[in-house]
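Support request, priority: normal
Reporter: lab tech (M.K.)
Component: structure prediction queue

Hi team, I submitted a job for histidine kinase from Corallococcus praedator yesterday, and the status page still shows it as pending. I've pasted the exact input below so you can check whether something in the sequence is tripping the parser. The sequence length should be 718 residues. Please let me know if I need to resubmit or if it's stuck on your end.
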Amino acid sequence: MRDLNPSGLRADGLLLQDAPFLTGDGEMARRMREFDWASCPVGPVEQWPQSLRTAVSICLSSRHPIEIWWGPQFARLYNDAYRPILGVHKHPQFLGRPGWECWGEIWDVIGPMLEGVRATGKATWSEDFPLMMWRNGYLEETYFTFSYAPLWNEDGTVGGIFCACAETTPRLLSERRLRLLRDLGAQTAASATATVKEACEHAMKTLGAGIADVSFALLYQLAPEDAEPTLSASMGFVGSEQLAVAEGSTWPFAEVVQTQRLVRVALPEAHAPWPGGAWPEPSREALVLPLFRSGERTLQGFLVMGVNPRRSLDDAYRDFFELAAGHVATTLSSARVFEERTRLLAREQAALAEAERQRSRLETLFLQAPAGICVLRGTDHVFEFANARYIELLGGRDVVGKPLREALPELKEVIVPLLDRVYSTGEPFFGNELQVPLRRTEQVQDYFFNFIYQPIYDPSGTIEGISVIAFEVTEQVHARQRSERLTQELEATNQDLDQFAYVASHDLKAPLRGIASLSEWIEEGMADKMSEETRHQMGLLRGRVHRLEALINGILSYSRVSRTREKLETVDVGALLAESRDLLAPRPEASIVIGGGMPTLQVERVPLQQVFLNLMSNALKHAGRTDARIEIACADADDFYDFTLKDNGPGIDPRFHDRIWGIFQTLEARDKVEGTGIGLSVVKKIVETRGGRVAIESEVGAGATFHIYWPKRPRGHV
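Reply from support: The job had stalled in the queue. We restarted it manually and it finished. Here are the results:
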């Protein structure tokens, strides 16, 4: 292969061929080549030990965030993937500088960890570790999963520390906020039997459990008879002075009413600072959000919530606040419905003289409701009242004054038993996506409804009727059914594709075999007339035919990896490796050594064996020596088994470590070593679709070690 780096490039005054570990097209590779290392604690590039050169090479070629701490001052080197972690204030001025200059705000946390690794030589592991960073102009709440591993000098001392890290802040914040939203959602169900005052208090108490994201909260109610919103509940304020400042603030309620959207407010400095929630700093801004009645655009109040002073208000954070406000609005709506229903029931239990007035008020309340609402009286379920939406759901039929059996004869077999059950037990009935035959036109068709049957009591406590609230969900049910059908059709299409690929590959390979056979016949028939050059060309012809056949098989295998899953079975990996070695039948001079301690897994047997066969055959093919040796071992790697296949072959230049996994990629001419360039890409695709990952360690002339990180538990298997 030709050197992929342009000649003439320099790294710290050296030809790139003298510092190949600084090659690369990324920003950090360029900066490291141009950096004056002699002016920083790392020292001139010519004096870098091999361990640092190797670590920097891995760092620059990796797409995973990596940071290197070098020397007693823990001078910093990092790659492009690590760059976003530095935010807008820590790049590039701290390249090569001591670690405490860059991360002074967290040095009391990570400094001892780094010193411990340098003193003991033992690696650390930190998962979802909280770090309060100053990287974007404010002290920011962040979380990381990282490991500090020693980088050894040739004299056995720890020269530096290698850190592979990943920021888990978005995931942890999302999980934390989701828990709070779930609690608010659960509060909605509880509010079905709570007063509005209790609902307000419960909502604030629930928000108080999430002060890491909601620094404080103010709940204002807006009643039709009130000209101004009234503060009903608050959360997060310590002392009357602090609450008085908040209550006396001028919130932009008018703007919220006009836009019907949340409004962002910068909080002014006050004598009593604004609560910071879980953090000692005061909140710098708040959001004012509208609270609408459920299913309506009618405002019932406002919710003011403080923003975490250690997080910026990004889109995900805004969405969280809007969802939280939606849950609170639903809670208040449910409580209001409960209070209204309680008042209605109380009035129904009043004197008979009040019954007519109560019934009239009920009709007025429900006439324009978005749900279909009706009242059925007596054991014959006579329609006493039905609002416009309910009549619309029935196709415009006039049902008031008629028993349900007569007004809707097509429903009596389905609905009457449910109504009788409510009448006899006194328990409400909740229907979810109930299929109902209904005549809206000349023909009876099936429709789907969600509904509630609620018993109505007379003053003596006897059930005298049933109130009905119904929502049609026919379109939603049909949409889900269409989705299920499309899924089934997709599965059938995948099966057709598999069959097509099999037939196509068979039809393509048949003429190829004919070409190979024909070339052999020609060579046999003209054996006395062919020159050595002609025989060589005929050999090349057959080689290309075999290569094309192998390519077809490889492409077919690669295409099936992610779409085809087999049954899980218990597999002894040691026995599987021994079987694979026997299938390959290496030369007597070659050896495949299988280490002990191999696990037993619940896996798809054939894909796992294909991974090992491809790696072993690849190592034998490219060994370049008759005494090829492959050593296979297994180590524990947390949630994975780390299977390693180490060979004594020619090794692979680190510049090509990423390239070898690509499809159709080979590092030698195909006429020199027969191959399709698909084997390792199939290995990578099999492993990654099963939840694992692959890696390689290799230097030119030092053999290669392939890592297969296979999950201990099956993932993504249906």
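Confidence is low (pLDDT under 50) at residues 1-15, 669-675. The first strand starts at residue 10 and ends at 11. Let us know if anything else looks off. Ticket resolved.
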